[in-house]
Amino acid sequence: MIPLFRPWVGKEEIDAVAKVINSGWLGMGPKTQEFEEKFAKYVGSDYAVAVNSGTAALDLAVKALGINSGEILVPSLTFASTAIVALYSNAKPVFVDVDTGTNCISLDDIKRKFNKNIKTVIPVHYGGHPCDMDEILAFAKSKGLPVIEDAAHASGSEYKGKKIGSIADITCFSFHPVKNLATGDGGMVTTNDEKIYNAVKKMRWFCINKSTFERAEVKSYSWYYEIDGLGYKYHMNDITAAIGLAQLKKLDKANELRKKISQRYMKEFAGLDWMKLPVEKSYVKSSWHMFVPKVKNRDGLVEHMSKNGVSAGVHYLPLHLQPLFANMIKRGEMKPANVPITDRIWKEIITLPVYPGMTKEDLDKIVDVVKGFKP
Question: Which end of the chain, N or C, is more open, meaning fewer C-beta atoms within 10 Å of its C-beta?
Answer without folding.
Answer: N
